[in-house]
Amino acid sequence: MKMPAEPGDVESWLSPGWVVAWEETGHLMAADLTVTASRPPEGYGVTVEYLEGVIRARVSDAAGRPAAQGQAALLGETAVMDRVVTDAAHRRRGLGGLVMRTLADEAVTRGASTGVLGATDPGRALYETLGWKKHATIAECVYQP
Fold first, then answer.
1. Cα–Cα distance for residue pair 15/76, rounded to 1 Å
2. CATH 3.50.50.60 fits 35-112, yes or no
3. Which band of pLDDT confidence, cut at 50, 70 and 90, is reported for residue 122?
4. Distance from C-alpha of 97 to C-alpha of 131, rounded to nearest angstrom
């Protein structure tokens, strides 16, 4: 169970068997989406798919191997970014930012103006460089009878 709240505040609300998953605490973030027309760095290519309200962006290296990916669900004027990840061998090359900008570009062309996401600590650092702002802490709780 996830909720926008401080984990320490949530702990006293929990029924027996429920615990705060402190290591999974995250950040609820949002941004106004704009078109950036970003381009991949040399040696990489981007493919975009749209199916049933979900945009998927995939970055591949020159050999066609997966390097980074992410998705966004469109809900009216809001795009919910999710599962943005860069393969360890391809990190520190701007591919996470490329995925986010590609998803934003596609979302805007489909009518979205606001982006939201739940971020880890490392993800938050990336998203803040792209103009995203933290609005709340996300507490995660799990049932462990």
1. 35
2. no
3. confident
4. 11
